[in-house]
Amino acid sequence: MTAAPAAAAPGTTDPAPPGPGPALSFTRTVATAARVLRQLRHDPRSIALMILVPCVMLFLLRYVFDGNERTFDSIGASLLGIFPLITMFLVTSIATLRERTSGTLERLLAMPLGKADLIGGYALAFGALAVLQSALATALALWGLGLDVTGSPWLLLLIALLDALLGTALGLFVSAFASSEYQAVQFMPAVIFPQILLCGLFAPRPSMHPALEAVSDVLPMSYAVDGMNQVLQHTDVTGDFVRDCLVVAGCALLVLGLGAATLRRRTP
Question: How many CA atoms, within 13 angstroms, populate the side-chain half-sphere of residue 226?
């Protein structure tokens, strides 16, 4: 026989039902990140692909231009920022979509867990993998493939890491608009490919049609490539490099905020 719930004392109100806690809690965010990392640990093939694919692409690119190392130097730095962004976008969008479709997010949102905690946890977990991925790709490009840069390797790593975090944020965001993994993959040509074409990788942005140049000015990947080129050409930290880093980081935070806004329970 189940005991009836105790009535509230005279002059008091019923206790509030469980609901979201404060906007952001460090403890809950770290706990969410640990749960995501535990799940990823059981999928070693995804981890291997996430970490190794950018390195393999850089390796192939280096020997595609085997007869002209200057060409690899000119575009290798740009691609060092683009490859981690693409990889993290794909992995994050599909992994988060699985959480949504399996009902895991539904159950988590029924707990005292804030949306910011949830998004922050996912960003922290995939961000940790992005650090490892960016560090390996940067080390391979500089010391394994002989990428010649004028600036500090640490600045190259910084902008590569910000690009990977931007890819993570975009993946979290677009997962809200996909109902299957097939749709999540289809967002890549819609969200990523236009940025690759307009970021200045194939032609200098000032030489584009004015309309396309204006569009490229508001796309974050343009600033990621510009930041890489700043490290490629300058020994010191330039004002343009600082601006590029702030724009990429600001876009990542903005997209993470939009991703939190899309989280909602599908049942009352």
Answer: 25
When mean pLDDT is compared across 54-68, 103-117, 196-210, the lowest value belongs to: 103-117
At 233 the pLDDT is: 85
From residue 123, give the alpha-carbon distance in Å to each of 29, 153, 222, 258, 264: 9, 24, 22, 13, 18
| Residue 253 falls in which region: left (phi positive, over 0), alpha (psi -120 to 50) or beta | alpha
CA distance 49 to 125: 16
pLDDT band at 228 (very low <50, low <70, confident <90, very high): confident
**Backbone φ/ψ region at 112: left (φ over 0), alpha (ψ -120 to 50), beta:** beta
pLDDT digits (tens, 9 = 90+) for 8-28: 444 444 444 444 444 567 788
